[in-house]
Each structure stands twice: as structure tokens, then as C-alpha cells.
């Protein structure tokens, strides 16, 4: 842009980054973000989230983690969406210890954990057979008065049926 004599502003940069992320080109979006910063425009939570989410959608988890750390080091506090995107992809890629670390950080910062984050952790633990951990997360979720979604309940109904547990046990999460 600046090579053509046109100087953008934060709004234009955000729009361009958003559109580039929509076409699943997070590396290009990050490059534009770097140019934006070079031209004295600060990255915002929204621009970082867009790029982190785009990296996650492309299964580029290491890049997302790196950008998440960069964002935090610049004093931009991650929100539920930023944590949620990262936790979900870390769980999907089997990096449960890292996902749990970000989850604990999120909770310690006082951010309200939502059904998506809880569900990501539960699904991640269940996928590797760590049922006790998955059930602890479910109990924590219910304790926070967050109702499990259908996908989360199905994980446990299937487990309880496989193990021959009391058929009414999953119902305690519905009432």
C-alpha cells in the first residue's frame, strides 16, 4: 500500500487482515500485521485474534502459540476468544498439557470459561482415554452453572454405556 503512495489506517488494516484470514492465509495476514506495526499502527486484540484463529484453522498451532505469546508480551491481554481458539486446537492436536496450562491461566486471570472451552478440554481428554480428567472438567463446568452441550453429553453417555455404568448417571448433568 505504502509503496503505491497510499497510507492506510487501523480500520483499513483490520479489514484487510480480516479478509486475508477469511481466505485462510494467516502467514500473509501476519506479514501485513508486521507492516502495519512498522508504519506505527499498533496491533489490537482483534487483529491478533483474527490471525491466531486463522492459524488454528490451518492447523498451524505452533504459529498460533507464538503469536499468542507475542500479543501478551506487548501488553495486550488475551480474552476468552483468544484462549478458546488456542485451547481448542491444542486439544485437537493432542497437546493437552499445554491446553490445560492455558485453561488454568485463563481461570486465574478471572476470565469466564465458556461451553466451547470446557467442551474442547473434555473432548481432548476423552479422545485419549483420560476419562477421569474429562469427567473432572465436566463436574467443574456444571459447578460453574454452565450447561453441557449435546456433543459433550454424548461423549459421556457413550462412555457410561460402554462401561455399563448406571444408565441414569449422565442424567445428573441435565438436571
Automatic annotation (TrEMBL):
<comment type="similarity">
    <text>Belongs to the PPR family. P subfamily.</text>
</comment>
<dbReference type="Pfam" id="PF01535">
    <property type="entry name" value="PPR"/>
</dbReference>
<dbReference type="Pfam" id="PF13041">
    <property type="entry name" value="PPR_2"/>
</dbReference>
<feature type="repeat" description="PPR">
    <location>
        <begin position="44"/>
        <end position="78"/>
    </location>
</feature>
<dbReference type="InterPro" id="IPR002885">
    <property type="entry name" value="PPR_rpt"/>
</dbReference>
<keyword id="KW-0677">Repeat</keyword>
<feature type="repeat" description="PPR">
    <location>
        <begin position="9"/>
        <end position="43"/>
    </location>
</feature>
<dbReference type="InterPro" id="IPR011990">
    <property type="entry name" value="TPR-like_helical_dom_sf"/>
</dbReference>
<feature type="repeat" description="PPR">
    <location>
        <begin position="114"/>
        <end position="148"/>
    </location>
</feature>
<protein>
    <recommendedName>
        <fullName>Pentacotripeptide-repeat region of PRORP domain-containing protein</fullName>
    </recommendedName>
</protein>
<dbReference type="InterPro" id="IPR050667">
    <property type="entry name" value="PPR-containing_protein"/>
</dbReference>
<feature type="repeat" description="PPR">
    <location>
        <begin position="79"/>
        <end position="113"/>
    </location>
</feature>
Amino acid at each position: 500500500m505504502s509503496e503505491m503512495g497510499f497510507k492506510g489506517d487501523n480500520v483499513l488494516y483490520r479489514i484487510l487482515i480480516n479478509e486475508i484470514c477469511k481466505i485462510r492465509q494467516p502467514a500473509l495476514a501476519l506479514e501485513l500485521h508486521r507492516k502495519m506495526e512498522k508504519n506505527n499502527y499498533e496491533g489490537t486484540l482483534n487483529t491478533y485474534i483474527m490471525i491466531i484463529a486463522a492459524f488454528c484453522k490451518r492447523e498451524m498451532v505452533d504459529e498460533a502459540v507464538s503469536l499468542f505469546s507475542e500479543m501478551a508480551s506487548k501488553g495486550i491481554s488475551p480474552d476468552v476468544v483468544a484462549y478458546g481458539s488456542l485451547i481448542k486446537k491444542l486439544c485437537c492436536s493432542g497437546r493437552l498439557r499445554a491446553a490445560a496450562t492455558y485453561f488454568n491461566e485463563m481461570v486465574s486471570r478471572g476470565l469466564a470459561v465458556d461451553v466451547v472451552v470446557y467442551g474442547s478440554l473434555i473432548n481432548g481428554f476423552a479422545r485419549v482415554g483420560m476419562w477421569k480428567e474429562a469427567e473432572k472438567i465436566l463436574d467443574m463446568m456444571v459447578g460453574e452453572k454452565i450447561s453441557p452441550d449435546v456433543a459433550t453429553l454424548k461423549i459421556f453417555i457413550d462412555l457410561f454405556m460402554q462401561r455399563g455404568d448406571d444408565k441414569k448417571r449422565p442424567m445428573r448433568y441435565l438436571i
